[in-house]
Design brief:
Two copies of one chain form a homodimer. Chain A is built from nine helices and eight strands. By secondary structure, the first copy, chain A, is an alpha+beta fold. In chain A, a hairpin with a 5-residue loop joins strand 4 and strand 5 (about 70-75). The longest helix of chain A has 27 residues, at about 120-145. The structure holds a DNA duplex.
Chain lengths: ~190, ~190
DNA sequence: TAGTTTTCTTGCCATAAGGCAAGTTTTATT
DNA sequence: AATAAAACTTGCCTTATGGCAAGAAAACTA
């Protein structure tokens, strides 16, 4: 019997009836990933998503010059999903990969649809999660225009300090829209102040 | 009696039953905006959204240095909405303003909620629209990192050629993450080739 | 139509960030 | 522990883009 305690933290008894929780929670399946395992690969159509109980995950795309660009990092409590591939049923451009060992809870599309259309609270929460991702992406996008690289790095440090421990300089740099060389210099500048 | 023909193009009879259309369509109210009118102002909580039948709209934020940064452009067929303010019920950071005279169809939050929770096809379409916005934003964000300014401009020209007619250089420039000076030079470079 | 304001262009110079490559440190592998 | 492979730092120089300001062009306005 798996430990579903984590899921009661995502689907809170204050937001759902007991019946609803008993419908929702058992639909999630516990899955583990080893370091470097892929959740999703470019070209596939996402048919599942995951809630992260532990570990670190990164998503990235390969641009036209073959450079790897980090699009997001995920850790405990986050949802690992390619929203557009999952909901539009299109092949994705993204790769999603475990940076460390991960314990996750998985749900597939058909089960999601069934819950989404039958449980009002489930779709309210799902919508809130999606809009939250949209909001975060928009802020990141504005920051890319309005702030200089050093400030973007400082903000990331402040908001997700645990990332720095687990993720290589280069992967952080591309997330910030700069090269690893530049990030190394920014780091140095910060350290000597 | 207003002309609702436009709405039958958004809510297609192939996707909805006659009953559903007769429930949905009359809930939208036709509203007109004059040039420079605001749909939404920073600090307000969005309580409505609009479908654009005609005209051009721009959303922007003011950054910490007081610069105005364009976050999006909208034209015929687009939905004008601040997703996060509308769904998370938070004050917005955005300003949304008519660039030209506009004819729009307006829906308020409570009516939206009622339709969303009672009509399966309506929420499917709504989710698709939101995910489509997410996808567009993500591509824009990746482009900001992967492509140089000239290529971003060329891509915008190709995807939304009608914008160039209606929108000032400066407003386009901040959308592309560059200054009006730089965009002017890029334009010149393109012209002389 | 003349006058005023806004938008756009252009020159000059400054600066943030990139490209490349060598060297160093850290982390994996056997 | 020894070796190999990654990851990170740093120097040197290049490049894309920015800042400012003046002038030209276009768009309003009275």
């Amino acid at each position: 019997m798996t430990n579903q305690h984590f899921l009661y933290n995502v689907f809170k008894p204050s937001d759902f009836t007991t019946d609803e929780l008993e419908t929702i929670i058992p639909k999630f399946k516990e899955v583990k990933f080893n370091k470097n395992d892929f959740f999703l690969n470019e070209g596939q159509t996402a048919n599942k998503y995951w809630l992260v109980q532990s570990g670190f995950v990164r998503s990235y795309v390969i641009d036209t010059e073959g450079n790897d660009i980090t699009t997001n990092f995920y850790s405990v409590g986050d949802i690992v999903i390619d929203w557009s591939s999952f909901f539009l049923r299109n092949p994705t451009r993204e790769n999603i990969q475990a940076l460390t060992e991960c314990v996750c809870w998985q749900l597939d599309f058909d089960t999601f649809q069934q819950l989404f259309h039958s449980i009002k609270n489930f779709r309210e929460q799902g919508r809130t999660t999606l809009v939250g991702s949209y909001f975060a992406l928009k802020n990141h996008s504005i920051s890319m225009i309005a702030d200089e690289a050093k400030d973007r790095y400082l903000r990331l440090l402040k908001e997700k300090p645990h990332l720095i421990q687990n993720i290589s300089l280069k992967q952080i740099a591309t997330y910030l829209g700069i090269t690893d060389t530049s990030l190394s210099r920014i780091r140095k500048e910060i350290a000597t102040k």
